[in-house]
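The material for today's practical consists of a large collection of protein records. Getting from the letters to the tokens is the skill we practise here. To make this concrete, we reproduce a full record directly below:
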Amino acid sequence: MDDFTHFNPAGRVRMVDVSDKAETVRTALAAGRVRLNPDTLRLVKTGGLSKGDVLGIAQIAGILAAKHTSDLIPLCHPVPLTGADLNLTVNETDCAVDIQAAVRCTGPTGVEMEALAAVSAAALTVYDMCKAVQRDITIENIRLLRKEGGRSGVWERTE
């Protein structure tokens, strides 16, 4: 259990104490995808869904999720974000909406969970806004692409 930082010496769950860690610039980039059928993707692209601008609303949902990650994930620290940016792209080749979230802060702990929460919430919002016209929507491949800052420095996914 010594390798698991979220347990105290008695084996009970705890929020890790980061008060002794140096404040550094922390960044994280995460991505995911929502697969749609061609008709639904066309409605997303043209703004033809009755619920409104799918990509714009999903972008806002992702930013809100990044800001509120510690309310959703029990042992996450509340992090004062200095930036959160989401990019949602209609990918006609793969019949999907591709999502990327970049999150940034200056602090003692990273923002990987905030970036992943942002992608997840944006994907769920696309799903919610499109489910009236398509039931078999798939959310897939939510993953961390890159993180930077702190003791461990830079980590980048090799795909």
Notes: The beta strands are 24-35, 81-91, 96-107, 138-148, 155-156.
